[in-house]
């Protein structure tokens, strides 16, 4: 299993960020990424550990229409969440497994540190550039921060 890791600090309080990234994710993601994700449907579970989410992509997103993900880690006490892609999305683009994990740590009343870990395996014929997996995650976090600051 390969791993890409990164850290980023955002100007959003930890509780507000956790709610947006975890408990309200299916409602927040389409607002944060309106040109990419049209809808997030809860297929199974209550939105916590073990839940299955179907991310439906906008028609303009090239070569992908959906991504099925399962929440494989969900811990409110430590502000950790991880999602594993089961079908579609990255798995249609050279990856054989793909899991993104986030750990939130309060830095101050208004700042939160996000530790990001992407665990993945690539298909033998796929040439992956290390660090590329983090680009989409940074785009999401940057868009999320802007959305939350605008709507505080």
Sequence-ordered SSE layout with sheet pairings:
Layout: E1 2-10, H1 14-23, H2 25-32, E2 37-44, E3 52-57, E4 66-75, E5 80-88, E6 95-106, E7 112-122, H3 132-150
Antiparallel strand pairs: 1-7, 2-3, 3-4, 4-5, 5-6, 6-7
Helix pairs in contact: 1-2, 2-3
Describe the structure.
There is one protein chain. This protein is of the alpha+beta class and 152 residues long. The protein has one domain (2-150): 2-Layer Sandwich (Alpha-D-Glucose-1,6-Bisphosphate, Chain A, domain 4). Helices cover 24% and strands 43% of the residues. The chain is built from three helices and seven strands. It has helices spanning 14-23, 25-32, 132-150; strands spanning 2-10, 37-44, 52-57, 66-75, 80-88, 95-106, 112-122. A seven-stranded antiparallel beta sheet has the order 1-7-6-5-4-3-2. Strand 4 (66-75) and strand 5 (80-88) form a beta hairpin. Helix 1 packs across helix 2 (25-32) and helix 2 packs across helix 3 (132-150). The longest helix has 19 residues, at 132-150. It is globular. The chain starts with a strand and ends with a helix. One of its GO terms (biological process) is defense response. Belongs to the BetVI family. This is Bet v I/Major latex protein domain-containing protein.
């Amino acid at each position: 299993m390969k791993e890409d890791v990164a850290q980023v600090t955002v100007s959003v309080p930890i509780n507000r960020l956790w709610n947006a990234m975890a408990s309200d994710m299916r409602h927040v993601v389409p607002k944060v990424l309106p040109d990419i994700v049209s809808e997030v449907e809860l297929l199974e579970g209550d939105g916590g550990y073990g839940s299955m989410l179907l991310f439906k992509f906008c028609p303009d997103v090239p070569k992908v229409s959906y991504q099925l993900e399962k929440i494989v880690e969900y811990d409110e006490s430590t502000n950790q969440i991880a999602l594993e892609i089961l079908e579609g999305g990255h798995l249609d683009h050279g990856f054989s497994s793909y899991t993104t994990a986030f750990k939130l740590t309060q830095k101050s009343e208004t700042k939160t540190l996000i530790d990001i870990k992407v665990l993945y395996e690539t298909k033998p014929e796929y040439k992956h550039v290390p660090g590329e997996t983090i680009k989409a995650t940074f785009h999401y976090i940057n868009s999320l921060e802007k959305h939350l600051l605008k709507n505080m």
